[in-house]
Amino acid sequence: MTLARPQPAFSAARQQSVAAALRALLPPASILSDLEDTRPYECDGLSAYRQPPMVVALPQSEQEVLAVLKVCRDMQVPIVPRGAGTGLSGGAMPIADGVVLSTARLNRIVRLDAYARTAVVQPGVRNLAISDAAAPYGLYYAPDPSSQIACTIGGNVAENSGGVHCLKYGLTVHNVLRVRMATIEGDVVELGGEALDAPGLDLLAAFIGSEGMLGIVTEVTVKLVPKPAVARVIMASFDSVVAGGNAVARVIAAGIIPAGLEMMDQTSACMVEPFVQAGYDTGAAAILLCEADGTPEEVEEEIARMKAVLEGAGAGAIQVSSSEQERMRFWSGRKNAFPAAGRISPDYYCMDGTIPRKHLARVLTGIAEVEGKYGLRCANVFHAGDGNLHPLILFDANQPDELQRAEAFGAEILALCVEVGGTITGEHGVGIEKIDSMCAQFKVAELEAFFGVKRAFDPPGLLNPNKAIPTLNRCAEFGKMRVTGGVLPHAGLPRF
Amino acid sequence: MTLARPQPAFSAARQQSVAAALRALLPPASILSDLEDTRPYECDGLSAYRQPPMVVALPQSEQEVLAVLKVCRDMQVPIVPRGAGTGLSGGAMPIADGVVLSTARLNRIVRLDAYARTAVVQPGVRNLAISDAAAPYGLYYAPDPSSQIACTIGGNVAENSGGVHCLKYGLTVHNVLRVRMATIEGDVVELGGEALDAPGLDLLAAFIGSEGMLGIVTEVTVKLVPKPAVARVIMASFDSVVAGGNAVARVIAAGIIPAGLEMMDQTSACMVEPFVQAGYDTGAAAILLCEADGTPEEVEEEIARMKAVLEGAGAGAIQVSSSEQERMRFWSGRKNAFPAAGRISPDYYCMDGTIPRKHLARVLTGIAEVEGKYGLRCANVFHAGDGNLHPLILFDANQPDELQRAEAFGAEILALCVEVGGTITGEHGVGIEKIDSMCAQFKVAELEAFFGVKRAFDPPGLLNPNKAIPTLNRCAEFGKMRVTGGVLPHAGLPRF
Known about the structure:
Uridine Diphospho-n-acetylenolpyruvylglucosamine Reductase, domain 2, Vanillyl-alcohol Oxidase, Chain A, domain 3, disordered C terminus, homodimer, alpha+beta, Uridine Diphospho-n-acetylenolpyruvylglucosamine Reductase, domain 3, FAD-bd_oxidored_4_C (chains A, B), 5-stranded antiparallel beta sheet, FAD-bd_PCMH-like_sf (chains A, B), globular, FAD (chains A, B)
C-alpha cells in the first residue's frame, strides 16, 4: 500500500517546551522528540493510519508515569498510551500535538505467587513472558491473542484481548483480578482485588477494554491457571459453510465447552496451506478445529463426544491430533492466517465483528453474496465458538478505488453483524477505525453513560481523545442521529 | 430485640402532592401512602434499622417505572428501589421523605431460550422461579443465595448476590449477560449483551452490585447452565479450625474447584444440630462440606481426589453422601445456620467479610481471641472456598451494652479482614450497615471514582442516596481521613 506520510503538526517552540518540562522530571534519554526517534511510534497494527507524535515518553516507574501525566495536565497536552503497538484498530495511533506514553520500560514481573496462582506484573510485560515465568510451576496465563509473543499485558487490558482459547478460558477481563492505575489528576487508584467480590462499584470491567481513555495502567494482577496435562484437536471438513456453522451450534448445544472452536472457509484454507503445510483439506468449503484439554481421561471422553457430534452434523474427513507436534501443526494454519493473507494479496483489511452463534451460517452466506458486489475476495476465519468473526478482505491499495471498496465492504459486514444482534468489534477494539460504527451500535443515552464515566476519570479529556467513543457531534455528521433545527439533543457535552 | 419504631418524617401536604402526582400516571392501587400500607416496607433483612417510607410505588411495566422516576425527578423525591426486601445490609431501607419503588409487580418471565441457554426476566422474578421455569429443559440459574426462594433477580443484581455454589459457578455478575434499566433522567439503557465482548465501556459489572444507586432495572438476561447429572458432598471433621482452614487451602491448591466448599466451626455445628438433625459431628472443632457435581464419572473421580486431600490434611471422620436425600441433609445444617442462631440467642449480628484463603486459619484464631474481650460468643460459618466469612455474633439486645459490644466486635472482625488483605463485604453489600467501614477500605481517589460514576448516571443524586458509598464528609466524621485546616481534600463533592 502506498502511504502518505503526514508531517509533524505542532510548533517547534511547543515541542521544545513540552520536551523540556518532561526532561526536567525524567532522565533525558527517556524523552524522544527528534522525528527519526518518534517515527517508529507513528502507527500501531492498523498501519493505514499514521501520525508521528510530538513527543514520546518512556517512563520506568509509577512515579515517572505520574510525572508525565502532571506535565501533560499542566500544559494541556493530549496523551496516547502505547504497549507494544500490535493493536489492530488504531487505538495507539498518535495525536499530532500529543505525547505517546510508552510502557515499554515498565517491564518487570513484580511477584509470582504459585500458591495463590497470581502474578503481579508491570504493564509493559509481554503476554507470553507471563506464561514463561509461570511455566516452572505448571501454570500459565490463559488469554492468547495471536500477537502474544509481542503484545503487552497493558495493551491487553486496554483492548480486553481474547485469543483462540477464550471460549473456555475467557477474555482479559475474566483473567485479571486487579489493575493499579494512575489518573490524569495524579492519583493512584486500584480497581478490583483478589477476593471474589468487593464493596463499592466494580469498575475493573469498565476499565478493561477502555482503550486508554480512563487512566494509565501501572500494575496488573493476573490469574494463572494450571497447564492442562493434555490437549488434542479435531480437524473436520464440511462441504458448506452452512453445515460448518451448524456443527458449531451443535457442539455448544451438546453442553461441550471446547478449549478452542475455530472455523476457516475454503478461501482461508487455500490461502494458508501453501504457506504452512498444515495438511488442511483445501477441497472442503469449511474446516473446523475443535480442541479439548484437561486430564487424559477428560480429553479422551470429550474428543469422543465432539467427534460424534461433528459426524452427526455431516463432517466429511475427520482427523484427531495424536501428538503435541501434530496439534501445533493443525493450529499453525489458523494462527498464520494474517501473515498468509499478506503473501497472496498486497493488502488486507481484517474485520472483527461478533454475532450470536445461531446466525453464523446466515452471516457467512451474506458475506459471500456481497463479495461479488464489491469485486473483492474475502477470506473468513472465526473464533466460531464465541461468534467472533475475522473476515479478511483482500485488496490492492494501488488499484484505483480498491481501498474505498474494501472499506465499504467492511462496513457492510459490520452492519450485518449488528443487524443479527451482534457487535462491531469482538476483541480488536474500536480505536479510530470503528468509531463511526459505534454510532450505529449505541443509543444517545448509552453514549452519554460512557461520556459520564469518561468525565469522572478524565475531566480535562486528555487521555487518548477521539478514540473508542464517538462524540454526539461526530455521530450527527455520520448521519446516524437526527439533528433537530441544527441543535443536537443533549448539546453541550464536552468533546473527548 | 426491642426496636424503636420511628414515625413518619414528612409533611402531610408533601406526601399528598407526591402521591397525587404518582396516581395521575399509575393506577391508584399501585400507590401506597397510608401508614398501615407502607409499614411492611419499613426495613429489609437488616431489621435493626426501620423507617416507613412516605410513599410506596408498585409499577407494573417499564413505562410505569419511567413515570415514577419522572415524578420523583420533577419533585426532587429520593427513591429507594426494593426487590423482596431480603437484603442483609439495609440497602432497601426507606428514606423518611422518599418513595420506595417496589419491583414486586414486575414479575414476568419474558422469554426463555433453551437453545441459547438464556432467560429474559423482569426484575421482580424470584431467583428460584427462574430455575423452576428452566427445569423442564434440564437447565437452571446458578447463583443460589440462602434467600433464593424469596429474593428477586433485581435485588440479586443490586447486591451482586452469591451463594454456596459461587466458588464454581460465580456470583450474579458472572451469570448475568445484560441489564436493561431506566435512568433517573428518563432514558432506557442496555448494559452488556449476549456476545462475549462488546465495544464501548463495559458498565455491566459496575451496575451489578451498585445497590440501586445508578438506575432501576427493568429487565435482566441471565445465563442458564445445564443441571449436573449428579452431585455428592463430603462431610469431614477436623480437630482444630486451623487444620480445617489448611484443608481448604490444600483442596484448592490441588487444582480442584468444588461445586461448594463450606466450613462451620463447633459453635455453629452445636447450634444447628438440635434444630435440623443433619448428623453433624458436634465433637469436631470444624466441619467441612465439600461438593462435587457433573457426570457420574467426573463426580466419582473428584470425590476420590477430594477425599484423599482431606485425609492428607488430617480429617477425622469422613462421610460421603450416597443419595440426593442424604446430600440435602448434609447441607441442611449449613443452610439453616441463621434461623438456628435465632433459636439459641435472642439476637445475632451476621458479618460478611472476605479474606485471602491463605489467611483463613489466622483470622479464625483472631476471632476466637476477641470473643473473650467482648464477652460474646461467635458462631462461624464460611463460604470457605472463596474466603467469604459469615461470623454470627450472638447477643441479647435487652442486656445493657450488648448491642454496642456486638457492633464493636463486628467492626474488629472487619478490620482484621481488611488487615490481611480482604474486604468488608463478600456478598451482602454495604447498604447502610457497613458504610463507615468503606472509609477504611478505600482511598479518597477511589471514592471519587465511585462518585464520578454515580454522578454520570444520577446527576440529581436521587437514587438510593446515602447508601453503599460514604461521602468524604462522612469519612472525615468517621475519623479515617485527615482533615487539614477544617477543609476536606477535594471539597465541593456533591452529597449523595
